[in-house]
């Protein structure tokens, strides 16, 4: 490590979020504020979170020309925020399982 380089980088719990991708066919069932359940290896039980952002357009498009037949390959980035106390169980870059909470879809 060279001089002037950070020794440690901290991410406060209130800034931790789950970022995941939802297929185009499913994004219409989600809404900002909707509860989701986060799970990970070693986290114990499910971690409650709420969707805080849904991308207004596809974040990834396949390397082909867009057409209606390729629409199922589009995905949208979604972010969900856990409570800061629960966020302490999460580590940046950690793989997560994300599930909608039953009975909350529109």
UniProtKB/TrEMBL annotation:
Keywords: Coiled coil
Keyword Heme: no
Keyword Coiled coil: yes
InterPro entries to which the protein is assigned, alphabetical: UPF0194_transport
Subcellular localization, as worded in the UniProt entry: Cell envelope
Region (Disordered), start-end ranges: 86-106
Top-level taxonomic group: Bacteria
Protein name stated in the entry: HlyD family secretion protein
């Amino acid at each position: 490590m060279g001089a002037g380089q950070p020794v440690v980088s901290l991410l406060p719990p209130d800034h931790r979020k789950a970022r995941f991708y939802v297929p185009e066919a499913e994004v219409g069932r989600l809404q900002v504020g909707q509860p989701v359940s986060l799970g990970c290896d070693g986290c114990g039980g499910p971690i409650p979170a709420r969707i805080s952002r849904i991308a207004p357009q596809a974040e990834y498009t396949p390397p082909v020309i867009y057409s209606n037949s390729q629409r199922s390959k589009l995905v949208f980035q979604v972010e969900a925020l856990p409570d800061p106390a629960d966020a302490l169980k999460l580590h940046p870059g950690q793989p997560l399982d994300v599930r909608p909470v039953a009975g909350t879809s529109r």
